[in-house]
Amino acid sequence: EAEVAQSPRYKITEKSQAVAFWCDPISGHATLYWYRQILGQGPELLVQFQDESVVDDSQLPKDRFSAERLKGVDSTLKIQPAELGDSAMYLCASSLVSGGGTGELFFGEGSRLTVL
Amino acid sequence: KQEVTQIPAALSVPEGENLVLNCSFTDSAIYNLQWFRQDPGKGLTSLLLIQSSQREQTSGRLNASLDKSSGRSTLYIAASQPGDSATYLCAVEAAGNKLTFGGGTRVLVKP
What we know:
The structure holds two protein chains of two kinds. Chain A is an all-beta fold. Chain A has no helices and eleven strands. In chain A, the strands form two sheets. In chain A, strands 2, 4, 5, 6, 9, 10 and 11 form a seven-stranded mixed β-sheet that branches. A four-stranded antiparallel β-sheet of chain A has the order 1-3-8-7, with no helix packed on it. Chain B is mostly beta strands.
């Protein structure tokens, strides 16, 4: 069964360091999302891609966060410099449908970040 | 701005009892509503997706209803089992493929 792949599963870093997360969506899925989930809360959208284009990055802290999906397939989310408040689960999701409704959303296992 | 609320935040039931999970949203202009399950430290797994034109969806022991006009959805899990213990999240999708999640309900089914 096709899955959304994410790496690393766990990352521990010190504040002010750089960290990067990678996501490979299900083949053929045009829409890719990065979410941040703080423990005990629901996921919050950071950035949404349609193919290689950013559709929504209004909630992305652009002074320290960046995201790209250069060839419209896999994606990288980077944080530099990391802050203590960035400790969270970073979830990648993809969907087949584009425009007028997402359809079913498929999530990866997530990347757990701990900033010390 | 769409807001999604799930009450209660946590729920504990004995095995065999039916589960009723609630989700409310403030803006009824939605494309669909999805229910997800999340096990500790894991990603989310889609359980049911209800299109805005539908009233309910069923899958096995799961049944989800949608009342757009009142901004409510309910997830029913029949004859709960210890394996149903997890956090259940609802999410509504509005224009622009924007998905807004609730905070989730953490469920414990006791043997």
